Amino acid sequence: MAKSNKPIVWGLFAAGGTLTAFFLPALIVLTLLAALGYVPDLLAYENMRAFAEHWFGKLVLFVIVSLSLWHAAHRLRITLHDFGFRSDTLIASAVYLVAALGTIAAIVYLLRI
Amino acid sequence: MSERQIQLEVLRYNPETDSEPRFQTYSVPCEAEWVVLDALNYVKDHLDTTLSYRWSCHMAVCGSCGMMINGEPTLSCKAFLRDYPDTIRVEPLVHFPIERDLVTVIDDFMEKLNRVKPYLIPKEARTIAEGEYRQSPAELKRFKQYTLCINCMLCYSACPEYGLIPDFIGPAAIALAHRYNSDSRDGGREQRQQVIATKEGVWECSFVGACSEVCPKHVDPAAALQQVKIASTVDWYKEHLMPWGKS
Ligand code: FES
Predict the structure, then answer these.
(1) pLDDT tens digit sequence for A63-113
(2) CB 3.0-4.6 Å disulfide test: which of A6, B27, B93, B99 passes with B103?
(3) Do A3 and B233 touch (CB under 8 A)?
(4) Domains and CATH numbers, chain A
(5) SS3 state of residue B69
(6) What is the ipTM of this complex?
(7) What pTM was computed for the model?
(8) DSSP characters over A25-49
């Protein structure tokens, strides 16, 4: 029996999961803070924009955004399977397509900044 | 000593006379400290000699007494009556064909176990004169937990993926393959990867985690499978992106 090629998507899923486990809670806290009107100076619009303008900032943002998307896509595929949706090929194609589009969109938007 | 009357609802099936399984209820006078297996033995000794079930050690080491107890895969020699209500339902392990009463046909598991080569394939052959294969405590610790499996197959009954996809090699066999793959003395990893790094192997696992919940020996097969996924992913990248880095 041939070895599976699933590591392609699973690798992205695992890497994305590791990242989101750290960044998602931080994002939630920061979003809440911002919603309550406390925006730390470091996170002011000008600073964030400067960060996104730098090539390293772009790289960081790209990695976080795209890997989170691939993580979410695979998670959704497995969750749907666990809930009893059995058309795996269709579901997998759909969720990975969204992740791929999101990845492309991230590149386009980051390069435009 | 206090006694308790337990209603034991046991799934009966005799392939020679029954067209389908049925429940039979036995009223069993039980001692307070008994386990479900004791109650079954009482039935066999005093009420109904035709009841068939497997057991041997009565101490959770042989792995032969697994059954569904109130719907959960459990070792009946470890299921203390004090943890159950007065009516207890006992059925053969699900996801396996029934041979007779509580006895299941385990050929599928045995065949899969065999396929993953769950034995040491030495890296280098050594003669007796050259002495033993040495291993440090740290090297042993890497896989010790996975050696505790008693092949009771509770994890196969708990695993919804195995129920859905009978070809799935399943928790215990993959965890055992991982046990030998992680052994510093072993050189058979590539042979085992051919079997477990496949779709029917570890990639059929969706990490439900029920296998680890029911495992009576705390092997944590789910953890083993996730480690196999990580290692197989690293392999995949090495094989496809760095063909020169093949080990
Ligand atoms: S009788 Fe041996 S494990 Fe239960």
Answers:
(1) 999 999 999 999 999 999 988 888 989 999 999 999 999 999 999 999 998
(2) B99
(3) no
(4) 6-112 (1.20.1300.10)
(5) strand
(6) 0.80
(7) 0.89
(8) HHHHHHHHHHHTT---GGGSHHHHH
